[in-house]
Amino acid sequence: VSSHTPSRNAAYLPACLPQVARRYSHFRSNHNALVGMFPGHRLPRLPPKQLLPAAASAAATATLVAERLVMLDAYLKQMLAVPDVYVGGCTQMLTFLGAYQGMQTSW
Known about the structure:
Helices cover 48% and strands 0% of the residues. The chain has 107 residues and is mostly helical. It has helices at residues 6-9, 24-37, 58-80, 83-86, 91-96. The protein has 5 helices and no strands. It is elongated and about 45 Å long. 15% of the residues are buried.
């Protein structure tokens, strides 16, 4: 079973990561695909989806969205620290990031 250590693999990360505008369901689909592709790896956990209360104020909604962005950003950085996912040129991840135009997205 392979695992990752972000500090050991930090050199693999680009200096500037791209911005990815995706819905949570896209993150979940991508995560499930990567888990299926790398069954022997210990991949980072996808942060849970937090539902917005129907009566939430604009400030509460903005706070929850900001927290979700931070968690998903950390998740992507952890996922990209896994050598087979990032350095291995995984087309699933490259497509998710919008960096690989040769594949049709599955979501």
